């Protein structure tokens, strides 16, 4: 075969081989790009889902905080005022109820109720500053005595949002949009019981170049990182949903007990008005058995309210407390 034809055939073969390599690189780059787009989409969807759960969780904490304020202001404080007018109270010998001694309100319990109720009244009336959403979130997350105790020591009520913001969980719950860097993806901020979000995807798109295999490896690494982030978002969603469910249960119970306690207080106020002396006091020893039992019932309701108010929903690390789990069991059993 003449040499020019041999050279020409070799050139054509080399050209075809080069074209095949270029086509393969193009296909590999497109595959890498598809993987990157899929990874980015899955992360965006997970973040949106978590944002929705986070918002719902925060609202439930705020609603619980508002319910605590309402029951303190509308029911607990009126009960305290009526109870303080009664002297010589001794429920141990009342008739018609079992274990009445446990319904007795101790001086310390009454003083704590009065302090919490008084501060709640001031918050509701606006006498000590606005009730910021952060304050309601803190009040919903923690025991009322603990949260209101922080305020009573000198911190402004409106400033409780700052107190809450120092907590990793509430900082997350009250934080900005996830799209703006929530979950601390860049900084690795711990949220919700030690959950740590991984870093943002290292490369979400790339400039096509001749290193197609390297691009594909980077895309696969992005996909693996996206899967981790999606799993963490799912865990955070589950925790947010659990917190929300517990808050909703406590809110429901407090609203129900508030109505019952308000009705009981009206009964007690009527009894007290019948026995008030010149000093505004009423002697428990003059009450009939039914009247003594009515007071015992009001005390029982007040103690039930206080036990819920004293139960924190969250630990400082963001986990649900065992106390709230035990209380939730009792509330569900009494539904």
Measured on Cα atoms, how large is the radius of gyration?
32 Å
Lateral strand order in the biggest sheet: 1-4
Q: Report how far the terminal alpha carbons are from each other.
A: 98 Å
How many strands in all?
A: 4
The average pLDDT is 73
Rough outline: rod-shaped
Q: What string gives the helices and strands in order?
A: HEHHHHHEEHEHH
What's the story with the biggest beta sheet?
2 strands, parallel
Which percent range describes the beta-strand content? under 5%
Helix/strand structural class = mainly alpha
Pick out the low-confidence regions. Answer: 5-18, 96-101, 150-172, 174-209
Explain this structure.
The protein has helices spanning 3-84, 107-125, 133-141, 144-152, 160-165, 168-173, 212-275, 289-309, 322-333, and strands at residues 86-87, 190-191, 195-196, 282-283. It is mainly α and 335 residues long. The strands form two sheets. A two-stranded parallel ribbon has the order 1-4. Strands 2-3 form a two-stranded antiparallel sheet. The chain is rod-shaped, with a radius of gyration of 32 Å. It is 68% helix and 2% strand. It contains nine helices and four strands.
């Amino acid at each position: 075969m003449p040499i020019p034809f041999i050279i020409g055939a070799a050139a054509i073969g080399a050209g075809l081989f080069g074209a095949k390599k270029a086509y393969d690189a193009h296909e590999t780059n497109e595959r890498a790009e598809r993987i990157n787009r899929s990874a980015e989409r899955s992360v965006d969807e997970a973040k949106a889902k978590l944002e929705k759960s986070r918002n719902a969780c925060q609202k439930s904490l705020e609603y619980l905080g508002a319910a605590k304020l309402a029951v303190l202001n509308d029911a607990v404080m009126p009960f305290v005022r009526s109870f303080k007018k009664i002297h010589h109270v001794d429920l141990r010998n009342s008739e018609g109820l079992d274990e009445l001694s446990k319904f007795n309100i101790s001086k310390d319990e009454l003083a704590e109720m009065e302090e919490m109720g008084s501060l709640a009244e001031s918050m509701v009336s606006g006498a000590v500053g606005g009730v910021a959403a952060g304050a309601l979130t803190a009040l919903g997350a923690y025991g009322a005595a603990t949260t209101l105790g922080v305020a009573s020591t000198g911190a402004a009520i409106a400033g409780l949002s700052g107190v809450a913001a120092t907590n990793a969980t509430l900082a997350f719950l009250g934080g900005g949009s996830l799209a703006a860097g929530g979950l601390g993806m860049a900084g690795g901020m711990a949220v919700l019981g030690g959950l740590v979000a991984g870093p943002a995807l290292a490369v979400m798109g790339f400039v096509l170049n001749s290193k197609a295999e390297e691009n594909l490896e980077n895309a696969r690494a992005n996909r693996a990182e996206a899967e981790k982030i999606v799993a963490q978002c799912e865990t955070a969603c589950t925790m947010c949903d659990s917190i929300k469910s517990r808050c909703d249960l406590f809110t429901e119970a407090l609203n129900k007990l508030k109505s019952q306690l308000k009705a009981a207080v009206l009964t007690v106020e009527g009894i007290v008005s019948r026995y008030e002396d010149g000093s505004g006091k009423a002697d428990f020893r003059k009450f009939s058995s039914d009247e003594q039992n009515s007071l015992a019932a009001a005390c029982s309701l007040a103690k039930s309210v206080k036990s819920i108010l004293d139960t924190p929903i969250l630990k400082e690390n963001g986990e649900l407390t065992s106390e709230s789990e035990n209380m939730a069991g009792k509330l569900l059993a009494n539904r």
